[in-house]
Specification:
The protein is an alpha+beta fold and 278 residues long. The protein folds into two domains: 105 residues, no CATH class; 153 residues, Reverse transcriptase/Diguanylate cyclase domain (Alpha-Beta Plaits). It is built from nine helices and five strands; from the N terminus they run αααααβααββαβαβ. It has a five-stranded mixed beta sheet with strand order 2-3-1-4-5, sandwiched between helices. A hairpin with a 4-residue loop joins strand 2 and strand 3. Helix 1 packs antiparallel against helix 2, helix 2 crosses helix 4 and helix 6 crosses helix 7.
């Protein structure tokens, strides 16, 4: 709508001022806006509209007032369209490049999971939403055990493929709005947003069981320990604190004398409640 209004205004001014003033450069602005916000097809469509409208305005004020020869009119439209279409193409490429750079700045290049900085940014927003909705936010910290043996036996390519498989399996088990991040070489964090504390813990255990199955099928088998921090509404808005608590629960599980207990759970509450290992 904005680009259409801009083209109409430019055409009217172009027509009124006559051939003494050229307004061809001003058609670039609506083309730029359309290509940046709506993509290349919209930019090309806007460029074509601008070229046709500008040509009509041009021939409407330059004698003779009778319609020009079709070939001359086609040439004029084409001469106007070519630079506008190039502008639309360049703007679309620039927009795509910026989007790619932003994506690369937020994700782990190998697995596609969020990197630590992006995870903390998303966690801050999740905690704020949880506060408004009076729901808990879960931070599930995973640390692989025995992963180095896979690299030593088969090479880093096989180890990398296992990490990609792990993230893919984790993403399949997450709900819409939940996220997975890679915060270290073989350390991952799953962000479980907008859930009850009980629901987040149940989901975390279910996902961990599936991930454990995937990892134990590798050669040699890989296991992991997990720590879950459940942040209740009003407890904290600092994701780093929640992440540190999940990490503490993970190492509490690692130090557990019962080797079958590989999952630690802690809570951050609005009141004075001590975390516990489960």
């Amino acid at each position: 709508m904005l680009t259409t209004v801009m083209i109409v205004v430019i055409v009217v001014v172009d027509f009124v001022t006559g051939s003494g003033l050229r307004f061809a450069m001003f058609y670039i602005l609506p083309v730029w806006i359309a290509a940046w916000n709506l993509g290349l097809p919209a930019g090309i469509a806007c460029a074509l509209a601008g070229a046709v409208a500008g040509s009509v305005a041009n021939f409407g004020v330059v004698p003779p007032l009778s319609p020009p020869h079709p070939a001359l009119w086609i040439w004029d439209v084409g001469a106007r369209l070519a630079p506008l279409a190039i502008v639309a193409w360049l703007i679309d490429k620039q927009h795509a490049a910026i989007a790619r750079e932003r994506q690369l700045a937020r994700t782990d290049a190998l697995t596609g999971a969020l990197n630590r900085r992006a995870l903390l940014d998303e966690a801050s927003r999740a905690l704020a939403r949880g506060q408004r909705l009076r729901l808990a936010t879960g931070f599930l910290y995973l640390d692989l055990d025995g992963f180095k043996a896979v690299n030593d036996r088969h090479g880093h390519a096989v180890g990398d493929a296992l990490l990609v498989k792990l993230v893919a399996a984790a993403e399949r088990g997450l709900r819409r709005g939940d996220l997975v991040g890679r915060v270290g070489g073989d350390e991952f964090v799953l962000l479980l947003a907008e859930a009850t504390a009980e629901g987040a813990e149940a989901a975390a255990r279910r996902i961990c069981s599936e991930l454990r199955r995937v990892l134990l099928s590798s050669d040699p088998p890989v296991s992991f320990c997990a720590g879950l921090c459940l942040v209740e509404p009003g407890a904290t808005q600092d994701p780093a604190r929640a992440l540190a608590e999940a990490d503490r629960m993970l190492y509490a599980a690692k130090r557990s004398p019962d080797q079958a207990e590989w999952f630690g759970v802690g809570r951050l509450t609005a009141g004075p409640a001590a975390p516990h290992a489960a």
